[in-house]
Design brief:
mainly alpha
């Protein structure tokens, strides 16, 4: 309970210009997320989460929503990506293939839109590899046998 009141106190202690700047940046990122969500590559969801992160400096509702998204992400990761060792290894193999193909495309393609798609593929691969959190635990258990 002390942490909640301490965070609330910190929110209230900020000068007015800082609170306004945080609001402008946070809501601006949310609007930008809506405007760029349909474009290929990263855009909507990462910008939305960053906007919520910025707004959570001033608002408790944004902090609760961000924590809710994180809990759902963990739940879905455990349920779908970590369901079995085979699924986990298949996701890793697909991610490595996307990473290699996207990197090759970034280095060798000429058109900007093609490179944009390849950048999106690379970022999806990196995010997928990073979200497979139990990979190292399973690998160490496998090699210890």
């Amino acid at each position: 309970m002390a942490k909640k009141s301490q965070k609330t106190t910190k929110r209230r202690q900020r000068p007015l210009y800082q609170r306004i700047a945080i609001d402008i940046a946070g809501f601006g990122l949310l609007i930008l997320a809506v405007l760029t969500g349909w474009l290929p590559g990263p855009g909507g969801i990462p910008l939305f989460l960053v906007g919520l992160g910025v707004l959570s400096l001033n608002y408790e509702w944004a902090e609760r929503l961000l924590k809710s998204f994180d809990a759902k992400r963990r739940e879905y990761t455990e349920k779908y990506l970590m369901a079995s060792r085979e699924v986990s290894w298949a996701m890793d193999a697909i991610s490595v293939a996307l990473l290699a193909g996207g990197t090759y495309g970034i280095l060798n393609l000429d058109k900007l839109w093609q490179r944009g798609i390849c950048v999106g593929l690379v970022l999806v691969a990196i995010i997928t590899l990073a979200s497979n959190q139990k990979r190292f635990e399973r690998a160490t258990r496998y090699f210890k046998k």
